[in-house]
UniProtKB/TrEMBL annotation:
PANTHER family: GLYCOPROTEIN HORMONE RECEPTOR, LP13728P
Source organism: Graphocephala atropunctata
Protein name as it appears in the record: G-protein coupled receptors family 1 profile domain-containing protein
GO CC aspect terms: plasma membrane
Alphabetical UniProt keywords: Cell membrane, G-protein coupled receptor, Leucine-rich repeat, Membrane, Receptor, Repeat, Transducer, Transmembrane, Transmembrane helix
The keyword Cell membrane is annotated on this UniProt entry: yes
Domain G-protein coupled receptors family 1 profile: 364-614
Topology in the lipid bilayer: Multi-pass membrane protein
Length: 677
């Protein structure tokens, strides 16, 4: 190995670049280089080890040591490296270092860069006896094991970067004096430690917005640590009161209290003018000697000044700063409209309403499914469609129940559960259920409405009715469409993880926008079809009676029932469609907290109302229900009355067991009205 000496703005530098066959650094390589300031080894793909004796040398003027883009498998032994002051930078970026073992890093430096290595584990006391201001471990994607004492024994640490790693646990021993913490793009870290472990923290850059809620609401984030902190503060307040009383009385109370700002002046390895001069020297060095990692930002200076005040002012300053205001910490990404620090439901009115709607939807639709499937009467097209509708609405009730249960579990501190919930199987299941249920429900309602409209409008065409086989094929298409739309967010088209209520509201890509626009347009079109068909049905019935001059009370009943059906559809879908379209157009009119009222209450309201409007309140359903109960020895007399009535009112040519749920008969207007009522 030949070291080239360069003179110029950087002083004395030894640079080795693009050495393809360098595999060993010999002992004594740096002997007698008393004025060496920089060691830079770059792009040596065969260099795997550095002998311990290589850096067992005195290099009093050394400031920068960089070994980059090699196959180095372990951190060189710097424990015997003797320098007059702390190194400005030790850069071991983009090597093949696999593990930081106990005591493997022993160095005094202002910056240690271990970015983009192959580190998988940091053992106990890996940095013991070191003094390092900034440590960066960014880009070690396989780093998953951090011992709880990994940073114990590391002094003077002010900045730590664990971004782009796979850690699931953040130890706090040794991190009490951090100013800045970066853990970006690290989705495996779902639990953030108590903020009370970071006494001097000023800036935090994290992966999840919910982790920043810990700084806004430290008491809710970790109640036990908050309680301990309060006890500590109370004890300090009592001690301060005693000290102030003794000062006022002029009594002796031991040695003067000294509280200094965090300063590097008293560090033995930073004394002298060299450490200050180093920072200025960096400005004139060649670009290739500067760090390549932008995450650390520009070089800064250490705290240089302590607090020099009188004894009384020292005590006043100490007692006036017993508790840090963590809400002032700069934390990103900050909680936003989609990821607020509030609970899922936000308020008790919405919470109670969701429980009510979910229970009514579950029991109402379950009752419809059980009765229709157990009926001994012919399984007609309307019954088949109503079963599909009830099943879809039952899924919506299940979605609401999942959301309500999660809200109940996390009341007061949802942000502690948010990451696991929104990225877990529970939220994915809830999101799938709600999209599947919504799309299948509105598809089925459209088919039911069109089938009713055709039956009433063309009542004389007995041979042109929708057959059960055709209905099965149509609903198979509806099931396919609903399943595809519910599955797409699981495959990366939009996402169920965007909000706490697990709806696919993510709109980052063109594909996401297309998906959301498709949902809104399909639902809007279906709603328009339903309204148009009901209007035509009412006009058809009313026109027939006006021609005969016989408007009756039943006409008003039909009108009221139709108005109720259309109103419930309008109340559910119109607000969502309106605000959804404005949001997709880039002009949201309400925030997400208020949107929850629409999405969690109005959005599933149809699922609660449908079983009552389309089945439970109809005479045919009551007949089927009592018939089912009579087979189990219940309500036999009532069932007998319905059975007799069925024989009497059965249209000519139809057998009693051919009567269908909400199916109008072909021969008279009364039958048409019963099909609606």
């Amino acid at each position: 190995l030949t070291l080239y000496n360069h003179t110029g703005s950087c002083g004395s530098c030894n640079t080795v670049m693009n050495v393809q066959h360098l595999h060993l650094l010999q002992a004594g390589l740096f002997l007698n280089m008393m004025y060496l300031q920089t060691i830079y080894i770059y792009n040596a793909p065969t260099l795997e080890h550095v002998l311990p004796s290589v850096f067992s040398v005195s290099l009093p003027h050394l400031k920068i040591l960089r070994i980059i883009n090699t196959r180095l498998k372990s951190v060189p032994n710097f424990s015997q490296l003797n320098t007059a002051a702390a190194l400005v930078m030790v850069d071991l970026e983009n090597n093949q270092i696999q593990k930081l073992t106990t005591g493997s890093v022993q160095i005094q430096a202002e910056s240690l860069i271990l970015n983009y290595n192959a580190i998988t584990e940091i053992e106990k006391g890996a940095f013991n006896l070191s003094q390092i201001a900034k440590v960066s471990l960014k880009g070690n994607r396989h780093l998953s094991k951090l011992h709880e004492n990994a940073f114990d024994g590391l002094k003077s640490l002010r900045s730590l970067d664990l971004s782009e790693t796979s850690i699931s646990f953040l130890p706090t021993k040794g991190l009490q004096e951090l100013d800045e913490l970066r853990i970006e793009d690290t989705k495996t870290l779902k639990v953030f430690p108590s903020v009370y472990n970071f006494e001097y923290i000023q800036k935090v850059h994290l992966t999840y917005a919910y982790h920043c809620c810990a700084f806004k609401f430290p008491a809710k984030h970790n109640m036990l640590e908050h309680y301990r902190h309060q006890l500590f503060v109370q004890k300090q307040e009592r001690d301060c009161e005693i000290l102030e009383e003794e000062m006022e009385e002029g009594g002796e109370f031991g040695k003067p209290l000294v509280r200094k700002e965090r300063s590097w002046d008293n560090e033995p390895w930073l004394t002298g003018n060299d450490s200050v001069k180093v920072w200025g020297d960096l400005q004139t060095m060649p670009p290739y000697l500067h760090p390549t990692s932008p995450a650390l930002g520009p070089f800064g200076t250490f705290h240089q000044k302590g607090v020099t005040v009188g004894v009384g002012r020292r005590i006043h300053k100490m007692c006036g700063n017993l508790s840090k205001n963590y809400q002032e910490v700069m934390c990103s990404p900050a909680p936003d409209a989609f990821n607020p620090c509030e609970d899922i439901m936000g308020n008790w009115s919405l919470r109670v309403a969701v429980w009510l709607v979910s229970v009514l939807a579950l029991f109402g639709n379950l009752a419809v499914i059980l009765v229709l499937l157990s009926s001994r009467f012919r399984f007609s097209v309307p019954k088949f469609l109503i079963c599909n509708l009830a099943l879809a609405d039952f899924c919506m009730g299940a979605y609401l129940l999942l959301i309500a249960i999660m809200d109940a579990r996390s009341i007061g501190d949802y942000f502690n559960y948010a990451i696991d919930w929104q990225n877990g199987n529970g939220c994915h299941m809830a999101g799938f259920l709600t999209v599947f249920a919504c799309e299948l429900s509105i598809f089925t309602l459209s088919v039911i409405t069109i089938e009713r409209w055709y039956t009433i409008t063309y009542a004389i065409h007995l041979n042109r009715r929708l057959k059960l086989s055709a209905a099965v094929k149509i609903m198979a298409g509806g099931w396919t469409y609903s399943t595809v739309m519910a599955t797409l967010p699981l495959l990366g088209v939009s996402s169920y993880t965007k909000t706490s209520i697990c709806l696919p509201l993510e709109n980052l890509k063109v594909l996401d926008l297309g998906y959301l626009v498709t949902l809104v347009l399909f639902n809007s079109l279906a709603f328009s079809v339903i309204c148009a068909c009901y209007s035509r049905m009412y006009c058809s019935i009313r026109g027939g009676h006006e021609a005969a001059g016989s408007l009756t009370r039943s006409d008003l009943t039909v009108a009221k029932r139709m108005a109720l059906l259309v109103f419930t559809d309008f109340a559910c879908w119109a607000p969502i469609a309106f605000f959804g379209i404005t949001a997709l157009a880039g002009y949201p009119l309400i925030d997400v907290s208020k949107t929850k009222i629409l999405l969690v209450f109005f959005y599933p309201l149809n699922s609660c109302a449908n079983p009552y409007l389309y089945a439970l309140l109809t005479q045919q359903y009551r007949r089927d229900m009592f018939m089912m109960l009579s087979r189990h020895g219940l309500c036999s007399r009532t069932a007998a009355k319905y059975k007799i009535g069925a024989h009497i009112t059965s249209p000519k040519g139809n057998k009693p067991n051919e009567m269908t749920l909400m199916t109008p008969g072909p021969s008279n207007d009364d039958s048409l009205q019963k099909g609606i009522i």
